[in-house]
Automatic annotation (TrEMBL):
The keyword Transcription regulation does not apply. GO terms for molecular function: 4 iron, 4 sulfur cluster binding; catalytic activity; cobalamin binding; metal ion binding. It comes from bacterium (Candidatus Blackallbacteria) CG17_big_fil_post_rev_8_21_14_2_50_48_46. Keywords: Iron, Iron-sulfur, Metal-binding, S-adenosyl-L-methionine. This is Uncharacterized protein. InterPro entries: BchE-like (IPR051198), Cobalamin-bd (IPR006158), Elp3/MiaA/NifB-like_rSAM (IPR006638), Methyltransferase_Class_B (IPR034466), rSAM (IPR007197), rSAM_horseshoe (IPR023404), rSAM_sf (IPR058240).
Amino acid sequence: MRFTNSWIIQTVQINQPLLRQNYLPYSVGLLQAYAQKHAKNPGHYTFLPPLFERKRLELMLPLFQFVDVVAISTYVWNFQYSMALAKNIKRLKPDVLIVAGGPQIPDQASQFLLENPWIDLCVHGEGEKVFLQVLENLNTRDWSGIPGISFLNSSNQFETHPPLPREKNLERFPSPYLTHVFDSLLRSNPWQEWVALWETNRGCPFSCSFCDWGSATQNKVNSFDLERLEKEIAWFSKNKIQLVYCCDANFGILPRDIHISEKIVEYFKTTRYPKSFYVQNTKNATDRAFNIQKILCKSGLSQIVTLSLQSISQQALQEVRRENISLQTYRDLQIRFRKEGIATYTDLLIGLPGETYASFAKGISQVIEEGQHHQIRFYPVYLLPNAPISAPESVQKYALETVTQPYLAPFSSIDASEVIEKQTMLIACHSYTRDDWVKMRVLAWLYEILYFNRKLLQIPLLLMHGLCQLSFFDMLEAYLKEPHSSLISDLIQFLFHKANAIQGGETELCQGPISPGIRGWLSVEDFVITGITQSKAWDLFFQEHQRWAINLFKQRNIPTQHLNWLNQAFALAKMHFTMQISSSSSKFRQDYNLWQIYQGLLHAQNIALEEKPSWLEKSKKGPPFQFVLSAQEL
């Protein structure tokens, strides 16, 4: 029996490590805002400021000395830390009630609770109503009538209660921004750059099996009131929020999303906050999605647009229950965004069930040939606890093989942390072997290094495709199969070694310098480029790749007159890369109209090759080669 007037509650939502920014702990903020509005007697509950920073455990534990209830929101980047924290809190205060929710808590939680006995209650589904019911039953600790929870009872027997139906009237959930939940955090951290998570609706009408979103939200989309959203935008602007990260699964799916975009741009123009607005586009309603991104990018609130495909393989898409936009629609959107000067990128997953090495390699080639020259972001397939693909029947059906590896954030500092986060990666299944996965991972890195990151060889490769009809698939297959001289051979050998090491449980990242005097975690492509720079081997890099391209032309019986422009294309590529890291003005003489052809191909336009001498000029501060002058004009 408790004799004090108020229960003390500590919410915990530990951030993902970022360079200078922290996320406001939105999920636990929702719990607090709901409880303070709907509790029978709100004065019975005292909420301490949410904890969001990852600190050493011995520094965290004193904060829980007088706490009665701990509510923890988990995800892949904080799960292990959260469990270690909960374990130590329970040792410190055996009577404290520890409640855990979030995507990392499995819906089937019996094994989880046995492995983590310091967790008293698991919450499944929307947590606001459930958490308040838990609070209202603290005196008796009788959880028998509370839906959406799992626990071990007094006999150590597992009990689970079905979750509540999802709330259709989202206005029952107060905004933590508008109800002052985060005011104390803002006051006590005036130097902090904040990221605000934001929902304009909840739900996803799709059910991709690698994602836990559609399954978690039961395929219904419910919306928050527009007046509330406009007040939240005003709050973001007033409190100088750096980035608003929209959590909607499909922003643009509703007609009103155009108005929301215009409203946030209106505040940005007035106050210059928030400085960025990130959304995940709906894959349908393409005209609306295009107009929204045009609004955001033209204002400066967004710099790049996502055009997600995940895979080109119809077999893979069918097996994971994903429906892509058509390739014709994809191509049209690429052209429309390019005409507006808006950059796009495309997501592709490495190794979905149903994919093969051949379908993956041809898929990359096709995405590029359909117009994606800015960036492809390649992601391994991770198994999330509640995603359909993670279910035992899916694991058995698709013969899934996985590896557990450390979860680390790119550009984070190397920290001998007492707790290492983990993630589960798919590395083989019924449609491809472990060796196939290694080849897919290596191929993706090569595209990132050679074609996308810094555009190192984009000019000659795209010209080889456009002028000689060499497919990217054929060029990269030849690249992997042919013997090479030292630098390229070492590069390929390193990539295969790294991919095999990942299958053995090693992190995807590499240790390297992230700023002067500071070492941290780099992506493989950044690690390679940093290594070539430190070795002062860029001349050798371009020389070896030029020799490879010449040999490829000879093997394909391409007429020798093409070698003249090919050699100049590599010189142009080298100059283009050099100018990216130089602030000096530059000139480059081209004997053919290569730059014009290259720019045409980027915009899906074919320009005939001409032997037409001209100079390309770059000013000190401008983009590469903004002026093209004929030799006569100079």
